[in-house]
Amino acid sequence: MSDLLRLATAGSVDDGKSTLVGRLLYDTKSVLADTLDAVHRASADRGLATPDLSLLVDGLRSEREQGITIDVAYRYFATPKRSFVLADTPGHVQYTRNTVTGASTAQLAVLLVDARKGVIEQTRRHAAVLALLGVPRLVLAVNKIDLVDYDEVTFSRIAKEFTAHATALGYTEDSVVEIPVSALAGDNVVEKSANTPWYSGPTLLEHLENVPVEPDPHDAPFRFPVQYVIRPRTAEHLDYRGYAGLVAAGTVKPGDEVVVLPSGRRSTVTKIDTADGELAEAAAGQSVTLLLADDIDISRGDLISVTGNEPTVTDELDATLCWLAEKPLRAGARVLVKHGTRTVQAMVTELRDRFDEQNLSSVDSPASLELNEIGRVALRLAEPVPLDDYSFSRRTGSFLVIDVSDGSTLAAGLVGAPLPLLENGVESCTGGSAATPDNHALVSPGP
Amino acid sequence: MTLALDTLGRLESEAIHIFREVAGEFDRPVILFSGGKDSTLLLHLAIKAFYPAPVPFPLLHVDTGHNFDEVIEFRDRVVAQHGLRLEVAKVQDWIDDGRLEERPDGTRNPLQTVPLLDSINEHKYDAVFGGGRRDEERARAKERIFSLRTAFGQWDPKRQRPELWNLYNGRHRAGEHVRVFPLSNWTELDVWNYIEREGIELPDIYYSHQRDVFLRDGMWLAEGPWGTARDGETLLRKTVRYRTVGDGSCTGAVESDASDIHAVIAEVSASRLTERGATRADDRLSEAAMEDRKREGYF
Ligand SMILES: Nc1nc2c(ncn2[C@@H]2O[C@H](COP(=O)(O)OP(=O)(O)OP(=O)(O)O)[C@@H](O)[C@H]2O)c(=O)[nH]1
Ligand SMILES: [Mg+2]
To answer: Where do the Phosphoadenosine phosphosulphate reductase domain residues begin and end (chain B) (predicted)?
Structure first.
């Protein structure tokens, strides 16, 4: 069993994500005395009778002033069974880009709903983002169960509705688990609650400690984006020329035949070097330096791949974007694409469709992609790039869309069509029953 | 042979990847190096990232003039040993020529920001590596690995870029720079476990020793150029060590018998206080002390 789980929270504003994270840290005794004292003091200053555990993670001044989360907080804690890297993300729609940040590396997401409100617009938006990014497992935490008198019927109704939605997004039934919790009171977070005798499943922590985590598959084809060429030019290492990088997928051994893309030149790995000595084998996630038998032209941006099972080298990119910028995307836009270690100029030639994450349908040929919308686009790249499908390889199938003028990140890009509905091109259903938007205005909209 | 990386292997791999990304994408990176444990670890990882070639970056230390002698001696020895280039920006120089004014309370920690930003501008550094960790403090827990700073060196937490997968976006406009934190995901215990695993040398003051100290605001401060015990405070000889090393005027020692790395690891594992809570007066100023300093351009 893996010793580490990376998880992120998700769900609408005020559903209780930060309180739940605070509760998890508090009840696992992961909060040190001085931090806890500070929370006690701050809660008392605010006139609260009990400590507000969300203050353990809402670390920015404006977050505390407004009582909302704005940016992701990363917390680390461990139980005897496992270590956890926890990203607490904001629920407010304006900060969805920060939710995407937290979810992009997560192996599991805890999606919260308020038991009084059930599944709402932002729940569906986040579920779509999680499905798109390929977060393998979900927990639906039906929170504030104390405010509906620990009512089983309410819980079951929400759980049923959500499971149907998640299944439509491509989740299997055993990858989604529903738990009734009260982050405020602690029910079913770490301790089993006496208030929910009708619930026989695990507490949130029990589930997090025992849920299987898929390791990086070792039988995946080898991929190695070259970050940097190491050439010491010292007397001792006169002819040393090593290609430094992090193994993105698969494994590599000395003697393996490889191909360098996009050039297509072939060679053989002679040595896997590290500061601690040579390795007999390296696997996904490891930072190493490869030495090859032939003196061929390789530089940052090239990809070293296993021969045979190679990525497609193309300047036509079919992709799904999660648009994260205020200014909308329109066909004809010139952008930069950062894929692996290579950044190339690109033009968005076509907006194929927009995913309507509320109705799980798609809208053909939209005029634009707006903030937080997911859509399928065609891109033409200034030079050919080796691409894998995102659903085949997360690390070599993902890219950033970057603004040419100010360098900001505009979108999360995924090669291919990772969402099942987009792939099947479900008939558009424009003008359908658009769900009512969450009416949570920020206390102050901020700059 | 098992190929799965353990926690330390995973953290090391991630840090090396970050160093190499910066080397590949920036023109003038620099590593902030004080001789403290986090910056010593940072340098150790940089050396590993480019092995067998030398580290392709210079080092920068903002010296408050209130540092511990042992740490400065250690800093210079490490720099010489690895044949590195070290730039020192002395707060004293800024005070002498009037660009900075000594504070009434005598602490110089907040005075580091101006020399840091001036040095970044003067040398046109475009990427600045720092040893900050997210587990240190809750404003730091909100920090990206690549953190964009304006031409005034400022951090705007509301304007942080999304940081997706392990694709770092280091693009910036002329005059802006990026702070890079390769140790973001390390905890204090990870740092000590790694120091043990790698046999990394640190300044002696991280291990228990005898020192004359006095109690102020619940912290054991040592005497030095920054001052000594005031009326009502008494100097006492104690067995102490430092958990963090910063400006002497506001870094407290902790009473400890931990004289070697194993004892330190045991102590850190059992500690009920965070390293900053136990030793930093500067963070106790207000609920948002760290955030405010970061916004101004602090590390
Ligand atoms: N009664 C009750 N109140 C809760 C519960 N969980 C959270 N709350 C309250 O709900 C409010 C919002 O909680 P937060 O934890 O800040 O919500 P959040 O989901 O992190 O909000 P954003 O991060 O801004 O999206 C606070 O006033 C909490 O005290 C619960 O289980 N029961
Ligand atoms: Mg929150």
So the answer is: 29-252
User: Hey, where are the domains in chain A?
Assistant: 3-210, 223-306, 312-443
Q: Which of A177, A196, A173 is nearest to A186 (CA)?
A: A196
Domains and CATH numbers, chain B: 7-189+288-296 (3.40.50.620), 204-283 (no CATH)
Six-digit token pair at A427? 């008939």
Per-residue burial over A270-283, b = 16 or more CB atoms within 10 Å of its CB, e = otherwise: eebbbbeeebeebb
- Say which residue the tokens 């640190």 belong to: B202
How many whole angstroms separate alpha carbon A238 and alpha carbon A234? 5
pTM of the model: 0.91
DSSP 8-class letter at A72: -
**A63 touches ligand 1 (CB under 6 Å):** no
Its CATH architecture, for the domain A223-306, is: Beta Barrel (2.40)
Q: What is the Cα–Cα distance from A83 to A386, expressed in whole angstroms?
A: 35
Of the partner residues A59, A98, A285, the one whose CB lies closest to the CB of residue B5: A285
Q: Do A408 and B161 touch (CB under 8 A)?
A: yes
Q: What is the pLDDT of residue B227?
A: 72
Q: Pull the structure tokens for residue B23.
A: 């080397």
Distance of alpha carbon B38 from alpha carbon B192, whole angstroms: 10
CB of residue A9 inside a 6 A radius of ligand 1: no
Class of domain A3-210: alpha beta
Q: Which residues of A touch B10 (CB under 8 A)?
A: 4, 285
Q: Which of A72, A234, A446 sits opposite B158 (nearest CB)?
A: A446
Q: Is the pLDDT of residue A422 over 90?
A: no
CA-based nearest distance A97→chain B, Å: 6
Q: CATH number for the A312-443 domain, one of 2.40.30.10, 2.60.120.10, 3.40.1360.10, 1.10.10.10?
A: 2.40.30.10
Alpha-carbon gap: A200 to the closest alpha carbon of chain B (Å): 33
Gap from CA of B158 to ligand 2 centroid (Å): 15
φ and ψ of A209, to 5 deg = -75, -25
Q: Which residue has its alpha carbon closest to ligand 1 atom 2?
A: A144
Distances (CA, A) of B153 to B59, B119, B125, B158, B176: 18, 11, 11, 15, 7
Q: Tell me: pLDDT of B194 over 50.
A: yes
Query: What does the pLDDT read at residue A439?
Result: 30
Give residue A36 CA to ligand 1 midpoint distance, Å. 18
pLDDT given for residue B234 in this prediction:
85
Q: Between these two residues, A296 and B293, which has the higher pLDDT value?
A: A296
Residue of A nearest to B184 (CA): A74
Q: Are strands A228-230 and A409-415 parallel, antiparallel or unpaired?
A: unpaired
What is the token pair recorded at A121?
A: 């617009």
Residue from A15, A17, A19 whose mutation best tests the ligand 1 pocket (most atoms within 8 A of CB): A19
Beta strands in A162-298 (DSSP E): 176-180, 223-225, 228-230, 242-246, 251-252, 257-261, 265-273, 282-283, 287-292
Using CA coordinates, name the residue in chain B closest to A403: B171
Which of these, B121, B160, B116, B166, lies nearest to B293 by C-alpha position? B116
Which residue's alpha carbon is at the smallest distance from atom 27 of ligand 1?
A: A14
Q: Which residues of A touch B173 (CB under 8 A)?
A: 406-407
In the beta sheet, which residues pair with residue A242? A230
Distance from C-alpha of B65 to C-alpha of B125, rounded to nearest angstrom? 23
Query: Nearest-CA residue of chain A relative to B13?
Result: A287
CATH topology identical between A223-306 and A312-443 = yes
Distance from CA of B291 to the nearest CA of A (A): 7
